[in-house]
Amino acid sequence: MLQKIIAALGLLLMIVAISGCIVSYRKRPTRLYEDVLSKKMTFDAGIVPGYPFKDGKWDSIMKGRVLWAICLYEQGIIRNIIFSGGAVYTPYAEARIMGLYAQQLGIPAAHIFYETKAEHSTENVFYSYQIARQQGFKSIALVTDPFQSSMMKGFTRRKFGTRIIHIPFMVDTLRKRNPVEVVIDPAPAYVQPFRSILDREGVFRRFRGTLGAFIPWEDKVWRKARPL
After folding, report:
1. Can you give the residue ranges of the DUF218 domain (predicted)?
2. In angstroms, what CA-CA distances link 228 with 122, 129, 136, 209?
3. For residue range 111-155, what is the model confidence (pLDDT) as tens digits?
């Protein structure tokens, strides 16, 4: 019964979030992107959260995130890309899959970094933030789709000592790049042994993970990450 209640609450929250996102999915990304341009902001790295790799091809959401990261890299807005995501729902590390696509599209391997611990969007940001620290990066952006960006804005604002700027993709801009089709050999991203998170964790634990319950924060009291 408890699991059904949690699932129902999660669905309700998602419906509310989607309703708001539908209204702003064009305006907010454009406003944020134009703000970056007007202030001539650049970043040491862009964090790109993963998405499951199913049926041997990239999903439209993964494709959008990767293509937008490449677009920002080509403009010099981000100088490096941190792809994040482990083998969560399929036996392919999401970060590695995205990196394979990015390299096929011309991003030098030297400017791609991988984070493969994360199993939830909050963890994508936290563990990528740690990668940024290890690499000496001082400025970072979150590069993702408008919906995930909207859902994550409170989390990134409250939990990190260094500000994380959101640059969600603009749907109309990506449509110009959408015909791009790339074939990769996913073998380098294949992980064994593998067990889906759906088999390892119940809905309640997954919901807690989505909220960041299992993140090993440096500041245990305030549950925050220190500045880069």
Report:
1. 60-171
2. 18, 8, 8, 24
3. 999 999 999 999 999 999 999 999 999 999 999 999 999 999 999
Do the Cβ atoms of 62 and 145 come closer than 8 Å? no
In the chain the domains, ranked by start, together with CATH numbers, are 2-210 (3.40.50.620)
Compute the distance between CA of residue 135 and CA of residue 109 in angstroms, rounded to an integer: 15
**Encoded tokens for 35:** 């703000």
User: Is the separation of the CB atoms in 146 and 168 below 8 Å?
Assistant: yes
Peptide bond into 49 cis (omega under 30): no
Each residue's pLDDT tens digit, 188-203:
999 999 999 999 999 9
Q: Which of 136, 157, 176, 160 is nearest to 227 (CA)?
A: 160
pLDDT recorded at residue 180: 80
Using the CB atoms, write b or e for 76-100: b if 16+ within 10 Å.
ebbebbbbbbbbbbbbbbbbbbbbb
* 20 touches 150 (CB < 8 A): yes
Tens-place pLDDT, residues 200-218:
999 999 999 999 999 999 9
Cα-trace Rg, the chain: 17
Does residue 14 register a pLDDT over 60?
no
H or E stretch including 67? helix 60-74
Spatial strand order in the sheet of 45-49: 112-115, 81-84, 45-49, 140-142, 164-166
Rounded CA separation 168/151 (Å): 11
Neighbours of 45 (CB within 10 A): 23
